[in-house]
Write a structure and sequence with these properties.
Distance between the termini: 32 Å
Shape: globular
Largest sheet: 22 strands, antiparallel, barrel
Number of helices: 8
Strand content: over 45%
Amino acid sequence: MFTVTDDADTGYGTQQTTSGMRTVQELKNVANSISIMNAQFISDLGLTTMEEMSTWMISGESNPDPNATVQSRVILRGVANAYALRNGWIWYSPMDAFSTERVEELRGPNAFLYGEADVGGAQNQITKRGQINRNFNRAKVMVGSFETRRAELDFNRTLVRNKVAVRLAAVSHQSESWIDNVRRDFRGLYGAVTYRPFKQTTISAMAEYGKTKSVLSQGMFVDAFSRAATATLGNVGYIYNTATGTGFRGQGRVISTGPAIAITDTALIPKRTQTNGPESLYQNATTSFTLEAEHHIGKNLHLQVTGNFYQQKLDNRTINSRNIVRDRSPLLPNGQANPYFNELYTEYFRTRSIDGNIVRDIRFSAVYDLETRWFKQQFVVNVQQHQDNPGQKKPKYVEYIDPASPNWVGAINPALTAAAFAANRTVHIANRFYRRYYLRDGLNPDRTDDVSAIPGVSAYLPDLAGRAATGHFIDRRFYTPSWGVGASGTYFNNHLYTMIGYRRDHFNMRTIRGLVRPQAQWQVDEIESFNTPALKYVQYKVDGANYGGVLRFNDMFALGYNYAQSFRISVGQGAATFNSGELQSIPVGEGTDLSARFSFLQGKLEVNLVRYKNFTPNARYAVPGITTALRDELVAIFPGDFNVTATADYQTTLTRGNEVQVIASPLKGLRLTATYADNKVVNTDRVPLLKAFRDAAKAQNRATPILDDLLITIPEGVPNGGYTKARGNFFGRYAFGDGALKGFSVGGGMNWRLRTYRGTAAIAAANATPTQVWSPAYSLYNAFFGYSRKIFNRNTSFQLNIDNLFDKEYFRSAAIGSGSWGDPRTFRLSASTDF
């Protein structure tokens, strides 16, 4: 009722899902747009992480913008999601294949099912479970390019047949990279127990511990040098030349400017270059435990209670910038000639952030089956609560000038007051310690490997400069209780399948803020002025609905329709809008999916076509170009209604496109899958609040020439950065079942991408006409070779995967100032055996 098994899977096709109404349903009869990547597909392609898996999603792609705060992020339908799901619960940490049974791509809004989500959808990792009807012991080893070494164990044992099963999975993964310093070290242990004490009762427990120790890619460098205009630095801190061991204060130095576009000139910056150093470690220790209890009362009433605990502990060392700048100061501060005049450089200050989350979830579901001669109806009630304690209160350090050094400027105020905190923030901003690397001196790893402070010159101190003026979190806890009701039905002898659902979520957050002491050790003190009721407590609620149906004409053809809503409740209310006393509302989403579903060759060939239109009607938008003259113009007409300090308005972000998925097993031993999707994301209905003021002024016969000029610069239908015009994937493999080649298998596939829209940029000058910027199209090919046979009477398989077979050079970018180079040709050789 509540748990899917893989018993009915055929090749790469998965027949069932719970991601329609949280009960097991046939995937082909669910109105929602859901595609599933099963364990067989993941194994055949040698995929190990969610980032690798997302390459093969219909409308998904891993986010190419490096971000250590949240892992496993995916762009779906051209919209970046904020986090992933794991067994239906929010998940922030890396995801590895060793504990994965399958991955569901939930496309489009889906608030009724899981609550908070982005309008493009979400990916949901389903983990392994104890199987009570069979035993197996499986070991797998993998070696590959860039010193990849991986070992996995998957062990399932039925202790009491059809009653108790225990499953244990473990992994150890180490790999280097073609990028300087980048590496991944992951170890994980996963356990699952399934216990059926009575025929109508099943209890499942799942636990995992994972530890990641990596150096993450910092991404592509950014152009801050190609414009003719220059800029003069303010009181930014101290600049330390890592090649000469000398430094000076940055105030008054002249530097270049640029359009802040990711640099793709490999003659200037080789693809492998990374300057954050081999000790810029990202460490994530994750612990999770989930308990499910399912009970059936008679044939009609089904109950489930689920509890989930999840904790991640983060320790992340990183850098604040990847700009490439030109030194335009002809003289040093001491008046001598600058030997680096007109030379390019990159510089940054180092940070260390200790962070994490403690998440607790609980859900109760009740399902009642009503069956008559004419129809079958299922009624669903869900009640749940999600609680998250983010770890912002933990220490955050930055490299500053050593306060004992003569280079330190400004005095520290030891008072525990808001005024002293504000003054100390300003002092710390003026004393950041920047490490500068001129390109002519080289950017080799041995110049960036030391992350420790320089004695007598720099010191790691609590990061006052990076804390908000309203104080730093001492404690933050938010609760999201919710309830939902729904129904699904089957009518007219299994020709019509319907579903409808409604859900309400409440967001209750309590935050205690304080000031960070300006001292060597991290300490935060609560003060009253940072904790007014308006700042301390936040409460609001949102609603989500979902309805749709599948009209099945016969076993070969069906049509589907789905309408759904979504919301991003945890982002909270936004900035102050132009309407006095009003904050930006919670971003919501909604949309429709129309589908046609075909099944041929007795289900051996499945074809699904989807046309979707999803949108966020209140996407937040910070309006550029709000001048004092504009404010004066509107205040004169609306003295009490127009907020003179605001820049916040809205726009509608619309994503639309088509999706095609083909899954086939037409011949014994042959497995095929192919997908295609096109997409366009645009912004429409822009700045409705400002336009409302314009219309109200016209109704009073009052002219608004300054506002009119501003609105001309905000056109309708502007593309939104991050979407790929069209994409396609194909993979197939054939296993020889007899003859001389018995046991051998061959296959291959491709990933094809058209251009990705990144945004607009003024290239030559800040006031130049903006130019649309796209990342180029590319096609990647891969190959698969396998051999299976019994060795010592044990099923044993060998597998070779070659990715980017023709060593195509390409990059992926979803924004103007970020992106990542794609991997060169790589191979993975694996061997697995049942023992």
